[in-house]
Amino acid sequence: MGRKIVFVWFLLVAALFAQRFSEIRFVGLSHLSDASAKEIIGFDAGDDVDAMRINEALKKLYAQGYFKDVRAERSGNTLIFRFKEKKAIANVEMDGFGKDKESEKFLEAIGLKRGALYDEEKIAHAKEEIVKALEARGYYDTVVETDVTPVGESSVSIKFDVNKGEKITIRRINFIGAKKLDKDTLQLDLANKEADFMGWLPFLNDGEAHVDQLAYDAYRLKDTYMKHGYIDAYVSKPLMRVDFGSYNAKINYLVHEGEQYRIGDIEVESDIEGLDEKRLKSMLVLHKGKIFNIKKMRRDMRTLKTAAGDLGYAYARVVPQMHKDEEKHTIDLKFVIQGGDVVTINDVLISGNNQTKDRVIRRYLYLAPGDRYSATDLQDSRNALGRTGFFESVKIEEQRISEDKINLLVKVKEAPTGTISVGGGYSTYEKAIFTASVSDKNFLGTGIAASLGFEFSKIKRSYTISLTNPRVWDSLYSLSLGLNQRHYEYPNFITDTKSASLVVGREFWRYWQASIGVQYVSNNSHKNNNSSLAAYDQNLTFFDPIGFYTERYKKSSFLMSLGFDNTDDYYVPRSGMIAGVNVEFASLSGDDVNLSKYPGGYGKFTKVSGRFGYYYGLQDWIDYDLILRFKARAEEIFSKSGEKLPIAEKLFMGGAGSLRGYDPYSLSPGSSTSYYGTGGKKSATFSLEASIPFSESAKMRLTGFYDYGMIGENSFGEIKRSSAGVVVEWLSGFGPINLIFAKALDAKGYDRTSTFEFTMGTKF
Q1: Quick one: how far is CA 388 from the chain centroid?
Q2: What is the pTM assigned to this prediction?
Q3: Which fold has domain 88-163?
Q4: Quick one: which of 209, 567, 749, 755 has the fewest CB in 10 Å?
């Protein structure tokens, strides 16, 4: 402070112990107004001022942080404060730290951004923080240099040149005294792990040191022992020795394991009326005779807290009381639930929804002002908002305002829901392809999904319009309307189809939805005599699979569906299940030139389809965002023998959403001997997937999959195929994009396989 504030001591010599100034002036101010400065110094012209008050005024002004120097001087009967302000930062950049956005965010977090004031102490602090941040990433001996360049008279430009140091690799970890647990188990939860051979491969340890986490690793190691019943285990602080010649490190832990304990008696005690203690006990994952596990005990505590929360006790506490029998090596557990007051919702405050209307968000909240608090309703509300696909993230925080009231703070970050896409491509069969569409599943923030699209190629023309209101007038009812026109040239026949549908649905029991609807289809199919398509593959012989020249019919359908969905997110669910069954009762009529083989002509059929998906995230178990998925689909068509079933209504297998690694719709009865099959009446596909983060900043995931499918006319197993591969899943600003790389594992005969395919606009 002494070198920064210069007080003109002649004021003391002049004995200004109680002098009045006729004027107070401020010279050199730009960041503060004169009025603000007067308010800060605490006196005005005409007030009695002594040297001590002026000295305190200088300190207060300097403390504002805007000034490099502040002086006070007297000119006649005027007191003048002169300021030398700090320069502003016109630009700040950093090379060598990371990506541009990452560097910018880091500098802003430590107070360095365009428009901020330049301060040498702040620059020195920034250099220290850069070194610390890189040490946390495993870089040591980092050197940071700064270049400060004047920009005009009042600004500077700052550039940080970062020369990252070397990374320390942990070559060995010694658990001295550890005998009962193996080394892999002991270091499973550590942030600092021993390097594996070829540790750069996924799922292996690269051995990079994270010194900022080293102190916490002792607690993680203690927790590992507690998970295996060693409640008396002692773990010392880690000692890391680094060879700065090779930047290799060794870490030593001193361990005393003690004895392993098992669960003795378990009790649940509660002062909350309505809690069935026997039922609660049956919900616990810890059981008598099992090895004690601290992680399972914490999980049981959350289960009990949720049970109390569902009765309105938002602030319930679960206190575990443990009695250790050192002779029998058992632990008796008593979970004591302390309820407190019943809590009600005072208000629900929504933020972050720049587009989505408040009333749309409130549709999916199962708690409203005046309701009694429920932990399950709160979690279900988070999941319901996540399933809409409107939001990138959803948080619901509890704001305590009294002993028996809370506010719910619903904080959302909106995701891009509207897309305008124009694209093109080329395939050996379709030649040049052009597509365009505009869609929005949250049109104008109303929650209404609308889409308009078309697609052109040498063999295909398609137009689609759809409109869905999932909550008509904020009710539980939904309404969907769809219009479609499609022209497609298959290798041996051409179809022209027009369709319209109207579906009304309703939500039941929170996770269940049911719907009924009607559909009308007009189809005109005829033989394709296009020689250019016939020459598509000279080695294949095309034939008329069902002996027709034309196939004109109209279809009227009654639709029914029942669905279940309790997943936690629309695009990337990590928990929950999706299941559904759809039934179509169809009646056909029309004019067919060749019905000699089918004297019964067109008739009726029933199509039943079902789907199932199960999602399980392992983040809580292995501290890594690995998601396991199981998906299954099955369809069957029931019709009377002797009645004709148009080929356009039959089932085909292959492509994304069915059996990856095979061309879309290329597998069906007849495809084993010709280019195009006759379609089946029974099909089923199954998929196993494992998904991991690929680039969190780009919202990309990498998923490995195995697909298995069956299709047939009279039985499911007439044709069986399988495939495997990987998918790059990208939640882009244009919607979800899947890049599929697949390998057909057991292709046969005329099977048409595909090694690459992509989809856009469909969820993962």
Answers
A1: 13
A2: 0.66
A3: Ubiquitin-like (UB roll) (3.10.20)
A4: 749
